[in-house]
Write a structure and sequence with these properties.
The complex is a heterodimer of chains A (155) and B (367).
Chain A (H helix, E strand, L loop, with lengths): L3 E6 L2 E6 L3 E2 L5 E5 L6 E5 L1 H7 L2 E6 L5 E2 L4 E7 L2 E6 L4 E6 L1 H5 L2 H5 L8 E5 L2 H5 L8 H14 L5
Chain B lengths: L1 E10 L1 H17 L5 E7 L3 E4 L5 H4 L2 H6 L3 E4 L7 E3 L3 E8 L10 H19 L3 E4 L3 E4 L2 E10 L5 E8 L4 H7 L9 H8 L5 H5 L5 H16 L2 E4 L4 H15 L2 H4 L7 E10 L2 E10 L2 E9 L5 H11 L2 E2 L2 H15 L8 H17 L14
Parallel strand pairs in B: 1-2, 1-11, 3-4
Antiparallel strand pairs in B: 2-6, 3-5, 6-10, 7-8, 8-9, 9-10, 12-13, 13-14, 14-15
Helix pairs in contact in B: 1-9, 4-8, 11-12, 12-13
The chains are: A alpha+beta (155), B alpha+beta (367).
């Protein structure tokens, strides 16, 4: 298994690191730290390719309890606003204020400095099983790209 | 499918925004039926986009002195003025969870189609442009925004300029202009238009409303059923109005994204180029390309529209400018593309150097 899964939309080449989990529908990534047990959350490049450049991001404060599928913040891109939904349940223990001040970081450094929050998970073992794992990654990326093409927003 | 049509006039900003949010959310859960609201606000109100810093976008002192209410939309985009000459539209449709982020770009086209076809039917040559603008020959006539509610449903907001008092708009929107001169009003009217101006007649807001409603029925393939709010909806709307849209916490909230303003000038062989930009962080809110060169105003306006709410990254800006230039090169009358690109990037660079709380958004009023 290579370290990244690459795909192309038009002339743009995207890569998805194979070292973390992905939300099947909400295009959020979740990276589990085996030492602390905490999970860093961000948006993945498939979701961002669909949304475009983020103009604004707001995030729930540290200490907020979030539930899988519920809002951990909101975003605006190309005049579309909506929720950032959490791929897992737990408590927000860290928030990336750099991305709140400069949302372009999410587009530019998607898997590194563009992270959004760190969550202390309440049920990682069960909830991570519902996320896209490394083994499923190539098939999931392919099916998402097919779906996007069928919906007509990429060639 | 049936689509409930609710028409209203003289609506307060707090009620109207609350109604859109509440019904939008309820449509997603099945508690309300899919709805199209076509309404006018009580003259006048100033509305900012979901995340904007209101004190940077609106002249709050002027608004207070002149009984102009201010509020914040749940949808994105820039600051606008609304009143009896601006037709508001809120389309609330159920969505699908798996579409949370996908299709964000082409949703705008699908949801805008009823307005475009409606205006076309009236004789206005409105066209969809650059993913989220509706223009007539380069001039903006409709502003749009989308909010995906927590329940998965979609709220599509649009404001159609049936008429517009540009001078009042400049007094309400916070611009860096010390004095509002005829020259500035003339410059804005080259970048904005309205239905009455395009048709050369005093068409009523209701006639525009009926044309747009008819065309939503056709483009969405639905049957329009005139209706009103249910008692449950009214109760929920009043609750959200009181708790949110009448609260300072919502209206006056601030964003951590810095508003920035900058400009640059360059002498080209065909005249002076004077470019000004307004940024929210790294997003271009507005760009104004002025000077004393001779170019077709609609081509310049189209170039400005191509940059609105786009990334200010150099390669993206240069590519957006080149795309318009290639299509309309002869309308620029020898003004070199490279000069526009370099001056634009310099203006952006200057804005990023000098961070200011002052807003400069005079040329994107109907965002």
């Amino acid at each position: 298994m290579s370290n990244t899964q690459e795909f192309k939309i038009g002339a743009d080449l995207y890569s998805i690191p194979a070292d973390r989990f992905y939300g099947r529908d909400n295009h959020m990534w979740a990276s589990h730290d085996n030492i602390t047990g905490n999970v860093t959350i961000g948006m993945d490049s498939l979701g961002l390719a669909s949304l475009g450049d983020l103009a604004y991001v707001s995030l729930q404060p540290v200490g907020t309890k979030v539930t899988r599928g519920e809002s951990l913040g909101t975003l605006e891109a190309a005049k579309m606003t909506g929720d950032l939904t959490s791929p897992i349940s737990g408590e927000i223990v860290e928030r990336n204020d750099l991305t709140v001040r400069n949302p372009a970081l999410v587009n530019q450094e998607t898997y590194t400095n563009g992270w959004l929050v760190v969550i202390k998970p309440s049920d990682w073992e069960n909830e991570s099983a519902q996320l896209v794992s490394v083994d499923e990654l190539p098939a999931w990326v392919d099916s998402e790209l097919t779906r996007y093409r069928q919906q007509g927003w990429i060639d | 499918m049936e689509l409930r049509l609710i028409t209203q006039d003289n609506v307060t900003a707090s009620f109207g925004l609350s109604a859109d949010e509440v019904i939008g959310e309820r449509v997603g859960t099945g508690a309300s039926v899919p709805t199209l609201r076509l309404y006018t606000y009580k003259s006048h109100c100033g509305l900012v986009g979901r995340f904007q810093n209101i004190q940077n976008e609106l002249r709050l002192d002027f608004c207070k002195e002149n009984n102009i209410t201010v509020n914040r939309r749940p949808t994105g985009g820039g600051a606008i003025i609304m009143g009896d000459g601006q037709l508001g539209l809120a389309l609330m449709l159920p969505g699908h969870a798996e579409d949370t982020y996908s299709r964000a770009r082409d949703l705008m086209l699908t949801l805008s189609e009823g307005i475009i076809k409606g205006l076309n039917e009236l004789g206005v040559n409105a066209q969809f442009y650059n993913k989220n603008d509706i223009l007539v020959n380069g001039r903006k006539i409709v502003g749009t925004g989308i909010h995906r509610a927590h329940s998965g449903s979609l709220l599509f907001h649009a404001s159609t300029l049936v008429d517009l008092d540009i001078k009042l708009m400049l007094q309400v929107l916070n611009t860096p202009l010390e004095k509002i001169s005829d020259k500035q009003v003339a410059a804005i009217s080259e970048r904005l238009t309205n239905v009455r101006r395009e048709l050369g007649r005093d068409i009523s807001v209701d006639e525009v409303r009926q044309a747009i409603a008819r065309n939503y029925a056709t483009t969405l393939g639905v049957e329009l059923v005139a209706g009103t709010y249910t008692a449950d909806e009214l109760q929920a709307i009043e609750k959200v109005e009181t708790e949110k849209y009448l609260s300072d916490e919502w209206i006056y909230q601030t964003s951590s994204v810095e508003d920035k303003f900058g400009g640059a000038k360059f002498k080209t062989p065909v005249g002076l180029l004077d470019i000004r930009v307004a940024l929210a962080g790294e997003t271009l809110k507005a760009a104004y390309i002025g000077g004393d060169f001779f170019a077709e105003e609609s081509a310049v306006a189209e170039m400005e529209a191509a940059l609105r709410w786009q990334s200010s990254q150099a390669e993206k800006v240069s590519a957006a400018l080149a795309k318009v230039y290639q299509r309309r090169e002869k309308d620029f009358n020898g003004l070199p593309l490279e000069a526009i690109q370099e001056t634009m990037l310099k203006a952006i660079g200057n804005a990023q150097l000098v961070e200011t709380r002052e807003n400069a958004n005079p040329y994107d009023p109907a965002a």
